[in-house]
Amino acid sequence: VTTPGQQPKPDEFDLIARYFAPLAGEGALGLKDDAATLLPRPGFEFVVTKDAVVSGIHFFPEDAPSSVARKALRVNLSDLAAKGAGPVGFMLALGLGNGWDEAWVKEFAQGLEQDCQSFGASVLGGDTFRTGGPFIVSVTAIGEIPQGNYVSRLGANADDEIFVTGSVGDAALGLQVRMGQNLQLVPHERDHLLDRYLIPQPRLDLAPALRSHASACMDISDGLLGDAQKLANASDCGMVIEAKSVPLSDAARSSLNTWQPAMETILTGGDDYELLITAPASRKAEFLRDAVEAGLSLTHIGQCTKNTGHVEVLDCDGKPMQFQSMGYCHTDYT
Amino acid sequence: VTTPGQQPKPDEFDLIARYFAPLAGEGALGLKDDAATLLPRPGFEFVVTKDAVVSGIHFFPEDAPSSVARKALRVNLSDLAAKGAGPVGFMLALGLGNGWDEAWVKEFAQGLEQDCQSFGASVLGGDTFRTGGPFIVSVTAIGEIPQGNYVSRLGANADDEIFVTGSVGDAALGLQVRMGQNLQLVPHERDHLLDRYLIPQPRLDLAPALRSHASACMDISDGLLGDAQKLANASDCGMVIEAKSVPLSDAARSSLNTWQPAMETILTGGDDYELLITAPASRKAEFLRDAVEAGLSLTHIGQCTKNTGHVEVLDCDGKPMQFQSMGYCHTDYT
Q1: Nearest residue of A to residue B40 by CA position?
Q2: Which residues from chain B sit within 8 angstroms of residue A232, using beta carbons?
Q3: Which residues of chain A are within 8 Å of residue B125 when distances are taken between CB atoms?
Q4: Which residue blocks in chain B are alpha helix, DSSP H?
Q5: Measured between CA atoms, how close is A29 to chain B, in angstroms?
Q6: B32, B40, B328 member nearest A13 (Cβ)
Q7: Taking CB atoms and an 8 Å limit, are B36 and A49 in contact across chains?
Q8: Which residues of chain A does B13 touch, with a Cβ-Cβ cutoff of 8 Å?
C-alpha cells in the first residue's frame, strides 16, 4: 500500500536485477539463479571468510551507503589479505533497515561497484531482505591462494619477530572524533582519522610476501593488544611489544600530546584493519624488503616469547604498561 | 555491567568456542582462525548459495532456537539440492536479537548440530553479533557437484515436462494455522502443516537424478506459481500447470473442503522448499523411476510452452484459474 506521492518500494528481485546483477562475476549466471559455481584455478585452493557489519555497532546509521558497502566488503577482504589470499568474489546478504529507500540501495551498489573494480572482486550471489531494525550487511568473501600456502594465526613460534602494516590506532581515534571527542587536531589530521574509521584499507598487496615469510597473521579488528592476545593464544606463545615501535600516523602522534587517553585508544581500540604478522628472525630483512617492493609500510614492533598467552607492552623505559581496558586480553594481561 | 543475580553474557569468542567450534569442518581450523580453506575433490566444482532468515519475517520470534537453526540451514541446503549439488559446509552469520541469552545460543547450536549430522555438513566459519533488533541468521552454504553438472533455472525448453517433489502448499497452510486461522482440521493434520512450516525438507536425495535428467530446477520458496513464473522468465518459456495434478498432502486436501482460500494459499503461498523441475519428455519415465529409487515423491504437473513468460494454471475443466494474489507473477499472469 502506498500513499499519494510515495513511490512503491521495489521488491528484492527488482533491486538485485537493477543494482547488483551488473556486478555479477563468472559462474554467477548474472544473479538470475539462486547459486553460483566456483572452481579454483589449477594449483590453487579457496579461502572463505565471513564478517558482518551492523548499523549502530560497526557503522553509523547516517553513514553514506556507499561507504557502508565499501566497509562491509573491505573488512572481509582484509581477512583474505591476512591469510595470504587474493579476492575472487563474494556473497552479499543485504539486510535493509528501517528508513531504507531505493536511493539508499543505489548508492550502496555504487560504492560496492567502485571497490569491486579496485580489488578485482565480483558479486557471486546473495540475498536482500528487510530487518525491521538496523541495516546489516553480511558478506562472505571467497579468495584464492596457492595450495598449501594458507597463513593461519596458529603458526607463530616463541622466537619469531612481530610486525604490523600501516599505522595503528587511527580508526579508533577517528571513532572518538566521530563521537564528538575534541582531540584538538588540525582539520587535515581530523579528516585523516575520520577517513581511516570509515574506509578500511585491506592490505592485499602484502599477500605474496606473507605467504613467503610469515609464520602467522591476522588482521587487527578488535585492537592491537586484544588481537595480539588472540594470536598468542592460538599459537601457544607469548608476545612483547615495544610501544615506541608501534607505527603511528602524524594525526595519531599529535593526539598523544593533546588527549590523555590517546595511547590506550591507539593500542586497544578497534577497526584498524592493519595486519599483525609474525615471521622468523631469519626472514626479517627479506620480509621488510618485500613489503617495500609491494608499496606497503611494514614495521617491526616486538618479539614472540615462550611465555604462553602473555602479551606485554613495554614503555620507553622497558617497563610493562598497564591500561584500564585491554580489550579481550585483560584477563590474561599481567 | 551486570546487575546482581544476572549472569554476564559471554562474548562472541566464548560463544563460538563453546557452541560452534565442535561443529567445525575440515579446513576450518576449529574456528580458531578468521577463515577456512576449501578445495573441491578432483572432478568436482563448488556451488555457493546464500539465504538469510529473519525473525518476524521468516520465523516467529518465539520459535524454538533449534528449529530456527535448522530452518536457516535447510533453506540453503534446499538451494544446493535444486542445483544438483551435495552439501560440504557453510558459513554462519548469527545476528543475536533483543532478548537473546546463552541458553538461546546453546539450543540454536544443538539444532544446528543435529542437522549437520543428518546432512553431512559442517561449520566452516562465521560471525556472531548483536543486531539490536530481530534475530537474523545468514548462512552461506557451499556444496559440491561433478564439474559441468550444475542445474540452473535457465535451461527449460518450450516442450519440456514440469515436475514437483513432495507435496505443495503445506507450509503456507501451516503458517495460516500458526497465525490463528481455523482450518477445521484434525490434530495430526494441523501438526503436519505446522511442522512443514517450521522445518523444511531439503530434497538432497534427488540431486543425482536432477543432474541426469533435469533441464532446469529451482526450489519453491515464494510459492509454486510465483516461482514457476521466475523459472519461465529465466528460461524464456511459458508454463501450463494442471491444478488437479499438483501433489497435496492429506492435510492440504482436507483444507480444500473446509477453508475457501486453501487452493490459492497452496498454489501461491511460500515456504514449500520442494523442487520445481523441468525435463525433456523423453526423460520422463526414467526420471520418475530414479526418484522412486531415491525414495522421493516426484509428480508430473504440467508442460512448458512457447508462450514466453506466461504461466497458466488450469482447473479440472481445463480453464485458466485466476487468483487475487499470484505472488510475484501477477503482472505477467493473463
Answers
A1: A39
A2: none
A3: 48-50
A4: 12-15, 65-82, 102-119, 170-178, 187-198, 207-213, 224-235, 250-258, 262-268, 284-293
A5: 9
A6: B328
A7: yes
A8: 230, 328
A163 strand-pairing partners: A277, A300
Taken as a whole, chain B contains a residue count of: 334
- Segment A130-140 shows an average pLDDT of 93
Measure the CA–CA gap between A75 and A50, rounded to whole angstroms: 9
**Strands of chain A, DSSP E:** 35-38, 44-54, 86-96, 122-130, 136-146, 161-165, 216-219, 238-242, 275-279, 298-305, 311-314
Distance from A54 to chain B by nearest Cα, in Å? Answer: 7
Cβ neighbours of A134 in B, within 8 Å? 131-133
Q: List, for residues B230-270, the tens digit of each pLDDT value.
A: 999 999 999 999 999 999 999 999 999 999 999 999 999 99
pLDDT of B332 over the 70 cut: no
Q: What is the mean pLDDT of chain B?
A: 92
Given a cut of 70, whether residue B228 has pLDDT beyond it is: yes
Q: What is the pTM of this model?
A: 0.92
CA B116 – CA B88 distance, rounded (Å): 10
Query: What is the grid cell recorded at A153?
Result: 594465526
Size of chain A, expressed as the number of residues it contains: 334
Cell of B57: 519475517
Q: Does A317 touch chain B (CB under 8 A)?
A: no
**A35, B49: Cβ pair inside 8 Å?**
yes
- Residue A52 and residue B93: Cβ atoms within 8 Å? yes
**Rounded CA separation A25/A14 (Å):** 19
With a cut of 80, say whether residue A32 has pLDDT above it.
Answer: yes
Q: What is the pLDDT of residues A9-31, one digit of tens each?
A: 778 778 888 899 999 988 888 88
**Number of Cβ pairs closer than 8 Å across A and B?**
194
Q: Is A148 helix (H, G, I), strand (E, B) or coil?
A: coil
- Say yes or no: A83 contacts chain B, CB-CB below 8 A: yes
- B105 interfaces chain A, CB cutoff of 8 Å: no
**Percent of chain B whose pLDDT exceeds 70:** 95
Task: Please name the residues between 143 and 202 in chain B that touch chain A, using a CB distance below 8 Å.
Answer: 143, 145, 147, 150, 152-154
pLDDT digits (tens, 9 = 90+) for A43-96: 999 999 999 999 998 999 999 999 999 999 999 999 999 999 999 999 999 999
Please give the pLDDT value at position A325.
66
- CB contact, 8 Å: B236 with chain A? no
* HSE-CB of B245 using CA atoms within 13 angstroms: 19
pLDDT more than 90, % of chain B: 84
C-alpha cell at A72: 562491509
Q: Quick one: pLDDT at residue B326?
A: 61
The shortest C-alpha distance from B111 to chain A (Å) reads: 21
Reduce the DSSP state of residue A249 to 3 states and report it.
Answer: coil
Region A236-256: mean pLDDT is 97
Question: Which of B163, B168, B157, B158 has its CA nearest to residue B284?
Answer: B163
